[in-house]
Specification:
48% helix; 6 helices; 4-stranded antiparallel beta sheet; 16% strand
Length: 164
């Protein structure tokens, strides 16, 4: 699947993200500008970095409309969503907190993931790599640099592997 992130005009408060699946179908969503890497692009970093397929972007890749996937994964009591989707949302939130602070703290990141999962009554994600959070943070900073270099009225295309 291709993620086509379009940067709108300089004074716009929203940019745009289009998800183009390999079968030609697509869905799209607005990306609020927030001073750091947009939330949906943080999802891309987390889901590709951890190799998970049941997060927001993975649901979209499998055919969910962006609006449905967004409502489902952002609903703290959405029991119909697989635990992994909820865990991914917790990881994204914790990573955004680190991006806002401008520096990475493994302890704070892991505590953010733990408390976000606890709030959603979901088991905490089991990271397999000891420095997974730091790696995600560096990847998010790299993508943020790429995104910030995109001129207004231009786009950045990313590849997301679709499940087979």
């Amino acid at each position: 699947m291709k993620l086509i992130a379009e940067k709108r005009g300089k004074t716009d408060k929203l940019d745009h993200l289009r998800y183009l699946r390999s079968d030609g179908s697509s869905t799209e969503t607005a990306m609020p500008r927030q001073g750091i890497l947009p939330h949906d692009l943080v999802h891309y970093v987390v889901e590709t970095g951890l190799g998970v397929r049941n997060g927001f972007t993975g649901l979209v890749a499998r055919g969910a409309a962006a609006s449905f996937a967004m409502e489902t994964t952002h609903d703290p009591i959405g029991k119909e969503v697989e635990a992994e989707a909820i865990q991914v949302e917790a990881i994204v939130e914790a990573l955004q907190t680190q991006l806002w602070s401008g520096q990475f703290s493994e302890a704070d990141f892991l505590e953010g993931v733990r408390t976000a999962c606890l709030m959603r009554e979901t088991p905490t994600f089991a990271f397999t790599a000891p420095e997974a959070g730091a790696i995600l943070f560096r990847s998010a900073l790299e993508l943020d640099t790429q995104w910030k270099s995109v001129p207004f009225h231009d786009s950045l295309t990313l590849d997301f592997p679709e499940s087979t």
